[in-house]
Amino acid sequence: MRLWPRSLAGRIAALTLLALMISQLVSFVLFMHERDRFLERVIFANMADNVAAATRTLDFVPVDERAEAVSALSTRDLRYRLATTPGRTFVGASDTAKRFARDMARSMEIDVARVRVAVGPGLARRPNRRAGDALRMAVRLDDGQWLRARQRVFDPTRHWARSSLLTLAVSGLLMAVIVVVTSRRITAPLRDLARAAERFGRGETVEPLPEYGAEDIRRSVAAFNLMRERLARFVADRTRMVAAIAHDLRTPITALRLRLEFLPDDDNTRAMAATLDDMARMSEASLTFMREEAATEPSRNVDLAALVDALCEDYRAAGAAVAFEPDTRVALVCRPAAIRRALRNLIDNALTYGQRAQLTLSDTPEAVTICIADDGPGIAETDRQRVFDPFVRLESSRSRDTGGTGLGLSIARSVVQGHGGEITLANRAEGGLSVQIRLPRTGTI
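Above: the chain's sequence. Below: its structure in token form.
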């Protein structure tokens, strides 16, 4: 399970929430610490006032009536008792208890030796889930007796901690909602930019993106819009130039053919006529290639298995040895006419130079792979990249007599790369060539 989010909005939200959580926890710990200190002061001040008042009262009560007076002064939470010694409770008093004893003696204006204090669980910052002694005091009276006082409180830690944690959880939830919504809003221009770049990389027409958001994001979107405009203008200029050259070549080719008609029919004129035919085919192929490059087709969700099966059925109806067995429906967002054109070129090559074509389709969560295998001579490893260049034909296996112009693989690669995919060639172990087309699932519905 991946805990760290991949998206920028998710990471911004995670980092912000982590920082807020840490700050909230630190604030909660400091609050609890200050609350305990406040409780100490309140409990001690209250008990000190009560004990001081009880001590002054007993100074005016006869000795034989002090027991009844002590009982009358006691309450449910504050109990008094007279004794001859302070008791063993005060042996090894803590620093906090000693500080309380000094403060008590100072407030009563008596010697600190006459005061004993012991801090119980309620003020010792230890778990105290039951009622217990928060504070014990012993004050020596003028006649030598010790007035022992025991303060009992119900520790409010559980209630206060529960309410504080509830407040922390509610505020954290509200902050999480605000942070997630805000981070998604901040990164929305980047998501639009990523989708537009993906569509533009597939060769689709992309309108200029609106420039909004933070200054850095607006600059990035503006740079993308400028790049898109420049690339579109460059491709259009190149397409028009090549198309114009290919179109203008028709006139001199036609003129040369007419001149050949007036020359004697021999080997030289037949060779020149064949050369002119090759030039005419290359010119027409170039025009077709440029028209297809300039054509725009919107992407849509199609059943790729059905598309391949229909294409193969057309070949089988014409008597070609093309085999394909679709397993299940394979949905992919693509330009179906372009994919069909690329597959047709590859199948034609397989039939021309390998007598048959075997197509397979494999589907994974990341990509769809189409494989076209034939029984031909294959291609040497050193030539597997060169054959994708326009008008390149390998004389050892691809003769001019076949009528090919060397644009089939170029068109197929252009289509595949326009979909963000890749096309690779490999010789089969049993003989023949295997062409693999990998189309990523980016943008599938």
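DSSP finds ten helices and eleven strands in the chain.
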